[in-house]
Write a structure and sequence with these properties.
Blueprint (H helix, E strand, L loop, with lengths): L2 H10 L5 E2 L2 H7 L7 E3 L4 E3 L1 E5 L3 E7 L2 H9 L6 E6 L10 E16 L4 E9 L3 H21 L2 H4 L3 E2 H6 L5 E4 L2 E8 L3 E6 L9 E7 L4 E13 L7 E7 L3 H13 L11
Antiparallel strand pairs: 1-4, 2-3, 2-6, 4-5, 5-8, 6-7, 7-8, 9-11, 10-11, 10-13, 11-12, 12-15, 13-14, 14-15
Helix pairs in contact: 1-4, 4-7
């Protein structure tokens, strides 16, 4: 892609953020052991959580005094290193590069194990990094159109069909495995065994694909009674856009006759 198009799309997608979950790491060919922050004295391994054209967030494990040195020393040169294996978004077979870090802000994640989320501000990231993000966001734009298709949003895949498309029939919610009854590109129904399981309407789900899991955020909008299963309810959850889910379900939704009734437990 030439520089003119990269600049054009960087401007168009400047507000977008890319969440890095296990699926996206695999899709990007991101070499986890080659992700680190380098200074003159330190090499700090990190796990990227979110990336954009101007910055990102990474997970690190550091003692508090080490973190203060990293955050407060304005004269300390800091660079973020990534290495990518061959993937559909990369314009070359493989790539490794540094991104200069302008600023760092630390947010505690789990003090008991010295885990911190580090928010980074980038300075002049390399063109190849920008091109990777541009290619991902162009792909996302295509799948967002599918996600917003009202006809497709009304089609559901049940537990039996899930096996055919290599998605497991359960989701991890609050460290518990919950059965998936039906799922679409914008909604999922989970079988729960007690009223009020979702104390908050916000839901954070981990769904498992064939080789890796992916994360989906949503809002629980209603609980449905299941007459055939006393003591159980169906939690209806509107889910946000998930690249993996739309990409995986889309071919199946086009080529199969699928139930449009979301509240039938098999």
């Amino acid at each position: 892609m030439d520089n003119y198009l990269i600049k054009k799309y960087c401007k168009e997608f400047q507000d977008l953020r890319l969440k890095i979950d296990p699926y996206m790491k695999t899709r990007l060919g991101l070499h986890q052991k080659k992700s680190f922050i380098r200074t003159d004295q330190y090499c700090i391994y990190c796990a990227p959580i979110e990336l954009s054209f101007t910055g990102g967030s990474v997970l690190v494990v550091l003692k508090e005094h080490e973190l203060k040195i990293l955050s407060n020393d304005a004269n300390l040169q800091k660079r973020l290193h990534f290495e990518f294996k061959e993937n559909i978004y990369l314009p070359v077979n493989r790539a490794a590069f540094y991104i200069r870090i302008d600023a760092i802000e630390a947010v505690p994640m789990d003090i008991s194990i010295d885990a911190w989320i580090i928010k980074l501000k980038f300075s002049s990231p390399p063109v190849i990094y920008k091109e990777i993000l541009v290619n991902i966001f162009l792909d996302k734009k295509k799948y967002l159109d599918i996600y917003n298709d009202e006809k497709l949003r009304k089609k559901y895949v049940d537990r039996i069909m899930l096996k055919e498309i290599c998605i497991k029939d359960h989701a991890m919610v609050n460290q518990e495995n919950i059965a998936i009854v039906k799922i679409s590109i914008s909604k999922v129904f989970l079988l729960i065994d007690r009223t009020g399981y979702f104390q908050s309407p916000n839901a954070h789900l981990e769904i498992f694909g064939k080789e890796q899991s992916f994360f989906v955020d949503g809002i629980c909008v209603k609980n449905h009674q299941v007459p055939k299963l006393p003591g159980y309810e169906l939690a209806e959850i509107n889910i946000e856009y998930s690249h993996y889910l739309v990409e995986t379900l889309y071919p199946f939704l086009l080529n199969n006759i699928i139930s449009t009734d979301p509240v039938i437990a098999r």
